[in-house]
Design a protein that fits this description.
The complex is a heterotrimer of chains A (261), B (230) and C (236). Chain A has 261 residues and is an alpha+beta fold. Chain A has six helices and eleven strands. Chain A has one domain: GHMP Kinase, N-terminal domain (Ribosomal Protein S5, domain 2). In chain A, helix 2 packs across helix 3. In chain B, helix 3 packs parallel to helix 5 and helix 4 packs antiparallel against helix 5. In chain B, 36% of the residues are buried. Chain C has 236 residues and is of the alpha+beta class. In chain C, helix 1 crosses helix 2 and helix 2 runs parallel beside helix 4. Classes of the chains: A alpha+beta (261), B alpha+beta (230), C alpha+beta (236). Chains in contact: A-B, A-C, B-C. Chains B and C meet through loops of B and strand 5 and helix 4 of C.
Chain lengths: 261, 230, 236
């Protein structure tokens, strides 16, 4: 019942889209207010809470020594998980991650990994162990665009994180070797109109959603199309350009051009 | 600058003692050992009876209520209607004066369509039956729907309809307020936007005094001042 | 380990002192009611959905609402990263917590429905089930659920042969007894009682008395938080 959107609402949103307008008055490429707060979970080695409008996610980064993968003995390990806990939305049910949670986790992971945000070769430890980095995204309030919030939270939490070297006898604590700054920008296609940072309704109504993750120089580190609609090559090219420049803007606004969180 | 809004009633929480006189107990309260206590988080209103007005909660339909419902499913001869309540309501095809075949139901009213209904029956297990408010089923095709907590509906309507009359006099729109908190607004686009804004404001400030004056002022300013397009 | 020194505990508190507690009502948009609590180092968020339709339908009860409670710990909430999902401890805590709050809810008002309570432990620092119950009570009130009263909870225990209120992590792990308790403070009815450790009958009575006092203080804070939410002394 939560998934049925009133026709009248659908018509209203499409009607506005045709005039390049949106229900909450935003411009097509405008984000809702973004708030990032770091370090709130002291027990985690790194943490960040991200709000995009009313959407809220909490990301905890745990860093612990552990065994590397047998085929990559000199490489640190990143494990990303997203919990769509039932308190965040009437449509989330308790249980193991469903396909949506898994997709979110894998895309966030790809963004971090493929952008080279963390230099995994610098995570080795003297005794043959490596640092394991757990990125756990705990969604608290779902009001659309969980992807961008989760990705941003992951980045902010990683920048905030410290390797707990002292606790394990590896010397003084130190930040993680962060080399890049992947920012995800999600767009939806509403009857040919492209909008960034979809609200809950826009996301539910749109037939396709596409996320573009780009780094400091604007190079692409990840992409994901979601949903059963189709997009033309021109539309995709347009979206990628728009998303890439938007990511720069978001990065500047939040991190002042660098990622010295 | 801190703005203190005057509350015209006292906020109470479940278990708060309201009166030592059990005969005064009314809605939102319960009696234990001859004393009256609050059942809910709300505003205590004490006159000849003591009642607590809820600040939140789910709409429970009563016979006679007029509501705005949305079709969520169509079964053999019933439309299943979401009336923003823990309970789904049903409207049987025979409630519409026209002779409708089961196969035509989706054409008359499909999933996602809204209409104004009246509640004709509620049984003890909360099985709810609806009929069109009057005459035939008419789908609401244009305009906007705004949802507020059902607890704020009296405030949106106002004493003797004063608030709703105020809105209709200043704005070029039709407004229908469903008892279930769903409100339909239909008219000139900018006025629809303003109506939505005003209704949301009423919802937020429902429990404060001086609201009618503030809304009147807001409407004057927006209509006659520079109405900035966002 | 020495727990008591000059009448003070390892975190400098007196035996009958609660840790600092802060409640925030209604921080979430989607949930029908919500409450965030910080209790010592605990950071916990509770949310309520309901009454709402029950799925799967066979779980519904003809004459009243069912109550469901899910206590869950975030992976990053504890020192060593925890695998997500319910473990046996979470399941037990969910059960006793549900049974702590169920008695005050007027379920008969909502036949064939469910009231779902979700408690997420974002950071754990001993006494999570009590803090969760406190937040859940406030979230239920915020959601407009009719109740006879709020349920308040705290843990009492014993360290160095002294009965103490609101155990901190080390006291919980290495002390002599741990006893979470929950009650409707107004009526004095106990709705949750668990004990783990060693207490003489005398010590138990002392502990229960101390628990009552602790719960009473917490009830005041829960009430105050709900009232503050609507006091309207904030900028729009």
């Amino acid at each position: 019942m939560n998934d049925v959107i009133a026709e009248i609402r659908r018509d209203y949103i499409y009607g506005l889209a045709k005039r390049s307008e949106r229900a909450d008055g935003r411009a097509l490429d405008e984000y809702r207010p973004i708030q990032v707060e770091v370090g709130l979970i002291g027990k985690a080695e790194g943490s960040a809470r991200v709000k995009i409008g009313n959407t809220q996610v909490l990301v905890g980064v745990k860093v612990q020594p552990g065994e590397p993968f047998p085929d990559a003995p000199d490489t640190g390990v990143i494990i990303t998980n997203v919990e769509l806990v039932p308190l965040a939305s009437p449509s989330f049910e308790p249980g193991p991650p469903d396909e949506n949670a898994i997709e979110l986790a894998r895309v966030v992971d790809r963004g971090v990994r493929e952008s080279g945000a963390i230099d995994l070769s610098q995570l080795t430890l003297p005794d043959g162990k490596v640092w394991l980095i757990f990125i756990d995204v705990h969604v608290l309030d779902h009001d659309g665009n969980l992807m961008d919030a989760a990705a941003l939270g992951a980045l902010a939490a990683l920048v905030n994180a410290k390797k707990p070297c002292e606790r394990y006898g590896y010397g003084p604590d130190a930040p993680l070797p962060i080399k890049e700054s992947p920012i995800a920008v999600t767009a939806v296609d509403l009857d040919g109109e492209i909008m960034l940072d979809p609200s809950l309704d826009e996301e539910t109504i749109a037939s396709s959603r596409i996320t573009v993750i780009s780094g400091l120089q604007g190079a692409l580190a990840g992409m994901q199309k979601s949903g059963t609609g189709t997009l033309s090559v021109e539309e995709i090219a347009r979206i990628v350009k728009l998303a890439s420049s938007k990511a720069m803007q978001i990065r500047d606004d939040l991190f002042g051009g660098s990622t010295d969180g | 600058m801190k703005k203190q809004e005057k509350l015209d009633k006292t906020i109470v929480v479940p278990g708060d003692l309201l009166s030592e006189d059990a005969t005064k107990a009314a809605e939102g309260t319960y009696v234990e050992n001859e004393k009256v206590y609050s059942l809910i988080y709300g505003l205590a209103d004490e006159r000849e009876k003591v009642r607590v007005i809820p600040l939140s909660g789910k709409y429970l339909p009563a016979i006679g209520d007029v509501v705005i419902g949305m079709v969520s499913d169509i079964s053999f001869s019933n439309w299943k209607v979401d009336i923003n309540s823990p309970y789904e309501a049903l409207m049987h095809i025979s409630e519409d004066p026209r002779r409708i075949e089961s196969s035509e139901m989706a054409k008359i009213m499909g999933v996602g369509d809204l209409a104004i209904f009246k509640v004709v029956d509620v049984d003890p297990s909360m099985k709810i039956e609806l009929a069109p408010r009057e005459g035939q089923l008419r789908v609401l095709r244009s305009g906007r729907i705004v949802e507020v907590s059902y607890t704020k509906v009296p405030r949106v309507i106002g004493r003797a309809g004063s608030m709703i009359s105020l809105l209709k006099s200043k704005l070029d729109v039709n407004i229908f307020v469903g008892k279930n908190g769903r409100i339909w607004i239909n008219g000139k686009a900018e006025d629809e936007d303003l109506a939505v804004e005003v209704i949301k404001r009423i919802e937020q400030e429902a429990h404060t005094s001086g609201l009618t004056d503030r809304i009147t002022k807001l409407l004057e300013e927006e209509k006659h001042g520079v109405h900035e397009k966002r | 380990m020495e727990f008591m020194k000059n009448g003070k505990r390892i975190d400098d508190r007196l035996p009958n002192e609660l840790r600092p507690i802060k409640f925030e009502v209604g921080p979430l948009e989607r949930a029908d009611g919500s409450c965030y609590v910080e209790h010592g180092g605990n950071k916990i968020i509770a949310a309520v959905y309901g009454p709402r339709a029950v799925h799967p339908r066979h779980l519904q009860e003809a004459n009243r609402a069912i109550i469901r409670y899910r206590y869950n710990m975030a992976s990053f909430s504890v020192e060593e990263r925890r695998r997500p999902g319910p473990d046996r401890r979470s399941i037990e805590i969910s059960k006793v917590s549900r049974e702590a709050i169920d008695p005050v809810i007027i379920k008969e008002f909502y036949p064939r429905s469910t009231i779902d309570i979700f408690v997420e432990i974002l950071q754990a620092d001993a006494g999570t089930r009590s803090a969760g119950i406190n937040a859940a009570s406030v979230a239920l009130a915020d959601a407009g659920v009719p109740m006879r009263g709020l349920i308040s909870s705290c843990a009492v225990g014993k360290v160095d042969d002294t009965v103490v209120l609101d155990l901190v992590k080390e006291e919980d792990n290495y002390g002599q007894a741990d006893m979470p308790v929950a009650m409707d403070v107004r009526t004095g009815e106990v709705t949750l009682l668990q004990m783990d450790g060693h207490l003489t009958l005398d010590e138990f009575e002392q502990a229960l008395e101390l628990g009552k006092i602790g719960c009473a203080s917490i009830a005041e804070m829960q009430r105050e938080a709900l009232i503050q939410k609507y006091r309207g002394e904030e900028d729009e």
